[in-house]
């Protein structure tokens, strides 16, 4: 790793109407320590580096978020700070401390929680895909040793068995459950005689996702049908102050020859 590069590029902490605190991060693309990357969520009443931070939950390997499901603020304890401990094959790093977003008053938070409850009920009981999962595309980590361009760091093989066309080793994180509603769409499949297999794909379509876990180039997996969809664009649909309740996601059905069908359920 080049000297002086800090691993953490972005760190956010938010309190969800679901009743849990979520800490999410991005690593610097230039951070190239040897893996595996072991992340541990830590907390303290004080943000300074010399404060006594305690571990919250078990460590995880090669993840991009951690959740704290315990209530921690009582009485005069008005502040609680999080940080991420990162252990690599070379050394240990600590992220800057961060606190939860407190701009939303209690009444607004309860309104957001009720909207979210009804949206979850609607999708889980009536219109949602029964078994849908999200494969989060890796945007940090070791570069692909087979197809990453040495100058641009971009992948040059869309079906690379090492990075699956992402430029990062192993390509995607393990699948996580996703509440999503697919609309009715006209999918057309054609066979091109000049190539093996199906080379066409269905038209793009919009779907609804609870919260905002999806970003461009992630993959949504409909386990029941086996189809996998590539995310193109996202936009907020229902937002209460800083809480994003529903996201509109523009997706495209990936052809069955695409490398995204090589992603196993438990990650690589």
Number of helices: 1
Q: How are helices and strands ordered from N to C?
A: EEEEEEEEHEEEEEEE
Shape call: flat
Number of strands: 15
Oligomeric description of these chains: single chain
How many structural domains are formed by the residues? 2
| Helical percentage | under 10%
Percentage of residues in DSSP E strands:
25-35%
- Spatial ordering of strands, largest sheet: 10-9-13-14-15-12-11
Structural class: mainly beta
Low-confidence stretches: 195-201
The whole-number mean of residue pLDDT values reads: 79
The N- and C-terminal alpha carbons lie at a distance of 24 Å
- Largest sheet, if any? 7 strands, antiparallel
Radius of gyration: 20 Å
Your description of this structure?
By secondary structure, the chain is mainly β. It folds into 2 domains: 8-102, Immunoglobulins (Immunoglobulin-like, Sandwich); 109-137 and 172-262, no CATH class. Helices cover 8% and strands 33% of the residues. It contains 1 helix and 15 strands, in the order ββββββββαβββββββ. The strands form 3 sheets. The chain has a 7-stranded antiparallel sheet. Strands 3, 4, 6, 7 and 8 form a 5-stranded antiparallel sheet that branches. Mean pLDDT is 79; it is low at 195-201.
